[in-house]
Amino acid sequence: MIIIFLGAPGAGKGTQAEIASKKLAIPTVSMGNIMREALATGTQMGLKAKEFIESGKLVPDEVVIGIINERLADDDCKNGFILDGFPRTIPQAQALDKMGIKIDKVIDIDVPDKVIQDRMSGRRVSMSCGAPYHLAYNPPEVEGVCNSCSGKLIQRKDDLAETVINRLKVYHEQTEPLKDYYKSQGILSVINGQESVEDTTALVLGALED
Ligand code: AMP
Questions:
Q1: Biggest CA pair distance of the chain
Q2: Mean pLDDT, 10 residues at a time, over the chain (210 residues)?
Q3: Active site residue 36
């Protein structure tokens, strides 16, 4: 099965993608995590992407399309995969089509901007493995420590208030048109993001079974 998770930054798509990934036993390919890894290890691509990521802009299409092309050729993607944070523009979606990738479902997690801005202030990620948490809605078992890798939890620079406003603007301008792109193909399910992760998960898993 090939699934795309769409949604504004902070709508909870990363968390839902991970849950669906475990349930369906297929990997999640998170473009944001690939970017942050490249940034942390200081690769040439990471250095180029740094300025875009930290200011809340999208990394140029040709860069992310090249990355996804390579990643999806890996062995673990043979039986399906979940895309989190890709595509984010129409040219990226068209690139997937050109690669011959047949998408089964697109889940859009819909959350109002105001709620997102409130949520982002509480978002934390593991410094080591990138796992997402929220101080109020999805806290770690031990304060400040990742459940899975014991890494330190930090607030991402791009989760700071002024960057979030910019990321939402970019989302509405460049990513939201993807909803119509996939709606016209009859594969879009819109889920209203709920307050609790569990309630949203129930709706997502229901949509995946349809
Ligand atoms: P995320 O964690 O998915 O919100 O991604 C963090 C940042 O990585 C974004 O704000 C972009 O700067 C960059 N990024 C992630 N995915 C993409 C993509 N598909 N196209 C362009 N830039 C991306």
A1: 45
A2: 95 93 96 90 88 90 94 96 98 97 97 90 91 90 97 90 90 97 97 90 93
A3: no
